[in-house]
């Protein structure tokens, strides 16, 4: 009966959200159930199999963090040593950061680094990405792919292998996991599912190709199955719940991944952040995991170390996030209290945005402009209108995408504690600082 309920709930959520193909793996009460739905690529008729690899985007970061904690267990890396101790190029690129930035900062998104990598050539191609830092290390949470690219470079220097070689040889092979990478020329060990851009209002499904810079691989290059994600989570479960540490990472270091970093406030993404793992409030405490979005895919992992329950979803469509929300709501209603972040409850009081919210905010090479027109608040990203913001008490807001009408994201404006003026915006977990005051449109 449990199997039939899970399959029906899973397939209904996929159909309701126009997802071409998806995998669901659930471990509960010592048993694991796996389900597949739909096609590997829309219109081909090729079923999405159990072993098909789906680009999991930022869930790659959890694998990279686990690999680094393995190196910590082996005594090769210290979490609180300056990264420059291992990467002397960092001293040349940013001497002012060299003695502050630690591996713990990188893995918890508290390094103050920009969100996106600036592609560059040279001996240290990340140098250009370190020129503009929104915050000082340790000052607060700001989601950063640059931080994980730097973490991957640290892996390479310490192991003498490429990140891809290290993650395969040192971590995945002992785990019994076969992964693929969306960048690089290695032979693909299993089919990689195609991502899709789905517009439900137009009933349009368009396959999309993966576009990731090689230097960003440690932040988002892996393609794995839902079953592979369950195997990753089992490293954090107790033996009586089917935990499998594989002798790779010490129990204390795995616990360190789940220990929340006080400075990390990932509003709009999660309820807290450790090292490569986010925390999500559940019915009886914190669940852990990560979400990942690649080009046309949306993937999600949650696990409860106390009960031994794991839920993993991979979906080959941008609408997979909506599918996940529906799936979580239905499973919660059935009594499985999966941890999930709720930034906005729906009970917030809508307010008119204060005039000092208007302006341009910068994170690295990305510029977010907030334009006020009476009660309308528009977000412009790099010169292109992107979303409509609905502002509530406390300067928090919901985000509605202009292109597809998708809602569900949340962010907030932040005030300077000294002046009281809005000087930052946090959206998608990324903090951007004010560059100049924009003119309010009458």
Automatic annotation (TrEMBL):
The keyword Hydrolase applies. Residues 13-322 form the Beta-lactamase-related domain. GO terms for molecular function: hydrolase activity. Keywords: Hydrolase. InterPro entries: AmpC-like, Beta-lactam-related, Beta-lactam/transpept-like. PANTHER family: D-ALANYL-D-ALANINE CARBOXYPEPTIDASE (PTHR46825:SF7), D-ALANYL-D-ALANINE-CARBOXYPEPTIDASE/ENDOPEPTIDASE AMPH (PTHR46825). This is Class A beta-lactamase-related serine hydrolase. It comes from Saccharothrix syringae.
């Amino acid at each position: 009966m449990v199997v039939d309920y899970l399959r029906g709930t899973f397939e209904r959520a996929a159909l309701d959200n126009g997802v071409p193909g998806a995998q669901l793996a659930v471990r509960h009460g010592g048993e694991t159930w796996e389900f597949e739905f739909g096609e590997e690529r829309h219109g081909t008729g090729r079923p999405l199999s159990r072993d098909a690899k789906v680009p999991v985007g930022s869930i790659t970061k959890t694998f990279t963090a686990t690999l680094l904690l393995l190196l910590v267990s082996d005594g090769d890396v210290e979490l609180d040593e300056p990264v420059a101790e291992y990467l002397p190029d960092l001293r040349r690129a940013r001497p002012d950061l060299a003695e502050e930035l630690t591996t713990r900062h990188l893995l918890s998104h508290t390094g103050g680094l920009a969100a996106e990598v600036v592609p560059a050539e040279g001996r240290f191609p990340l140098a250009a990405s370190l020129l503009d830092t929104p915050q000082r290390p340790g000052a607060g949470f700001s989601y950063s792919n640059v931080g994980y690219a730097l973490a991957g470079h640290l892996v390479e220097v310490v192991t003498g292998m490429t990140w891809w070689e290290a993650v395969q040889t040192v971590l995945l092979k002992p785990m019994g996991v076969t992964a693929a990478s969306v960048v690089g020329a290695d032979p693909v060990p299993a089919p990689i599912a195609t991502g899709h851009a789905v517009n439900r209002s137009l009933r349009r499904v368009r396959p999309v190709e993966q576009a990731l810079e090689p230097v960003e691989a440690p932040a988002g290059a892996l393609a794995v199955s839902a079953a592979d994600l369950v195997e990753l989570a089992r490293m954090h479960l107790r033996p009586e719940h089917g935990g499998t540490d594989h002798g790779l990472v010490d129990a204390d270091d795995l616990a360190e991944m789940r220990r929340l970093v006080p400075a990390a406030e990932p509003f709009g993404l999660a309820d807290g952040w450790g090292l490569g793992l986010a925390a999500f409030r559940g019915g009886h405490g914190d669940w852990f995991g990560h979400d990942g979005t690649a080009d046309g895919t949306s993937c999600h992992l949650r696990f409860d170390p106390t009960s031994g329950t794991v839920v993993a979803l991979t979906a080959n469509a941008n609408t997979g996030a909506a599918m996940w929300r529906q799936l979580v709501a239905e499973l919660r209603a059935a009594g499985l209290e999966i941890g999930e972040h709720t930034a906005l409850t729906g009970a917030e009081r809508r307010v008119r945005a204060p005039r000092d919210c208007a302006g341009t905010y910068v994170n690295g090479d990305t510029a977010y402009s907030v334009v006020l027109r009476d009660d309308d608040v528009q977000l412009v990203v790099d010169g292109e209108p992107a979303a409509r913001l609905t502002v509530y008490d406390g300067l928090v807001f919901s985000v509605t995408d202009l292109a597809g009408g998708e809602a569900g994201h949340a962010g907030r404006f932040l005030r300077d504690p000294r002046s009281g003026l809005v000087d930052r915006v946090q959206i998608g977990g990324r903090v951007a600082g004010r560059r100049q005051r924009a003119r309010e449109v009458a």
